[in-house]
Automatic annotation (TrEMBL):
<protein>
    <submittedName>
        <fullName>ABC transporter substrate-binding protein</fullName>
    </submittedName>
</protein>
<dbReference type="Pfam" id="PF01547">
    <property type="entry name" value="SBP_bac_1"/>
</dbReference>
<feature type="signal peptide">
    <location>
        <begin position="1"/>
        <end position="24"/>
    </location>
</feature>
<keyword id="KW-0813">Transport</keyword>
<comment type="similarity">
    <text>Belongs to the bacterial solute-binding protein 1 family.</text>
</comment>
<dbReference type="InterPro" id="IPR006059">
    <property type="entry name" value="SBP"/>
</dbReference>
<keyword id="KW-0732">Signal</keyword>
Length: 433
């Protein structure tokens, strides 16, 4: 499973390392047909543990399928080691990234090889990818990686808990969501016993529901004071203040592990939860009797154009600049991102496949619970990824820190976002756009 965008520090469980299944340890794969008389390419991938098994299987399948290229796989979860190897003149021939967050930065530094020449020469069907997935791997009109899996976030809701509270379906708007939260949350003697929903959502993931943005590509400016983004933060702050930091921290400290039956949503501590498609797989495994549904992220009723808007990211594969065998690396990259191989990989991880032609794939519908619901949502044309700018990682870190400070009352919304603008704009000014 590809690594997810960094969750804000307030989320009461460590989603990132658990969900990604990634490991910084290294292990090699690449058995199959003998490498004698073949061109050997080194493939560094970020998936570890059980998730590395399907990569190993696909590598072996490719090695046996032809007599020109031998792929030697290495589990390498440390992204910085990839950069060090590239800068040091000893890069792998092919590598993966958890998501697209570093793509623009690395492309801008010239360490990723543009793939457009290969795409054109092989008539590779780049247009089969979901538009948002395609744009996520492009920078300055060039394609620097290919997506292998895709994630999106929707609203999970406990049907029984909603029904008991008098609701016959999930909230459609943010305003309804806040009313649901008020009625579904329970407190006793100042302590939270149950939450309608965790009152702090990742602002750059949730902002599309408010028609918000954090970057203006025309003006080349960061836009934390954009009305939609500001409204996102204000809404989080309003929901947070309903309970207070002390009560929320105490409640969060009692939450169980994310990938377990103690997950707050699976355990009935949350009536609703924004999360990715993999939670449906967790529910199947850890809470088989849970009566739940999945719905689009609610939208601000003041922005009806944002109905069905949402956020996505992709796991990527790229060819480093300076690779010894880029042509052979492309042959394997082309092969592993074709429909059959992509479907196998995404199904094994419980992720979505970024190819539109796999929207109704029988194996994916069987292996990934609610797959059709998620794919219908992600192909609606209103799903966006983070902006493709070279300073993205630093910018997102500053957004998360500012958001945390605002929620905890260290600064006001206006003060925090003004400070964020002042701190982040110099990052944009330093990079060539």
């Amino acid at each position: 499973m590809c690594r997810l965008p960094v969750k804000i520090l307030l989320i009461p469980f460590l989603i990132l390392t658990i969900v990604s299944g990634c490991s910084a340890t290294s292990s090699q794969t690449g058995s199959g047909a003998s490498s004698k008389d073949k061109v050997t390419i080194n493939f560094w991938y970020t998936w570890g543990g059980d998730e590395a098994k399907i990569i190993s299987e696909l590598i072996n399948e490719y090695n046996k399928s032809q007599d020109k290229v031998f792929v030697k796989g290495l589990n390498q979860g440390d992204i910085q080691k990839q950069m060090t190897a590239i800068v040091g003149g000893n890069p792998p021939d092919l590598a993966s990234h958890y998501d697209e967050n570093k793509l623009a930065s690395w492309a801008d530094r010239g360490v990723m090889l543009p793939l457009d020449k290969y795409i054109k020469e092989d008539n590779y069907d780049i247009n089969d990818f979901v538009p948002a997935a395609r744009s996520a791997v492009q920078y300055k009109d060039k394609t620097y990686a290919l997506p292998i899996v895709m994630n999106t976030w929707m609203l999970y809701y406990n049907k029984d808990m909603l029904k008991k509270a008098g609701f016959d379906g999930p909230p459609e708007t943010i305003q309804q969501l806040m009313e649901y939260d008020k009625k579904l949350s329970k407190m006793k003697d100042g302590r939270i016993e149950q939450l309608g929903i965790w009152p702090s959502q990742n602002p750059y993931m949730w902002m599309n529901a408010f028609n918000g943005k954090i970057w203006d590509p025309e003006k080349k400016e960061v836009t934390p004071l954009d009305p939609g983004f500001k409204k996102t933060v204000e809404t989080n702050k309003k929901m947070w203040d309903r309970y207070g930091t002390k009560a929320l921290d105490r409640f969060a400290s009692g939450s169980g592990q994310y990938a377990s039956a103690q997950n707050p949503f699976l355990a009935g501590k949350y009536a609703m939860q924004f999360d990715g498609e993999w939670i449906a797989k967790f529910a199947e495994r850890y809470a088989p009797n849970l009566n739940y549904g999945v719905a689009p992220m609610p939208y601000d009723e003041n922005h009806p154009e944002s109905k069905n808007a949402g956020f996505m990211n992709v796991g990527t594969l790229y060819i480093p600049k300076g690779a010894d065998h880029p042509d052979e690396a492309w042959k394997f990259l082309n092969w592993i991102t074709q429909k059959e191989q992509m479907a196998k990989f995404a199904a094994s991880l419980g992720n979505l496949a970024p190819r539109q032609s796999l929207q109704n794939d029988a194996m994916l519908k069987k292996e990934v619970p609610k797959y059709e619901v998620f794919m219908k949502y992600v192909t609606n044309g209103k799903i966006k990824s983070v902006p493709s700018v070279p300073f993205l990682d630093e910018y997102l870190e500053k957004i998360n820190k500012t958001h945390d400070d605002i929620l905890r009352g260290k600064v006001s919304v206006e003060e925090g976002l003004t400070r964020l603008k002042k701190e982040a704009q110099p990052l944009a000014n330093k990079t060539k756009q």
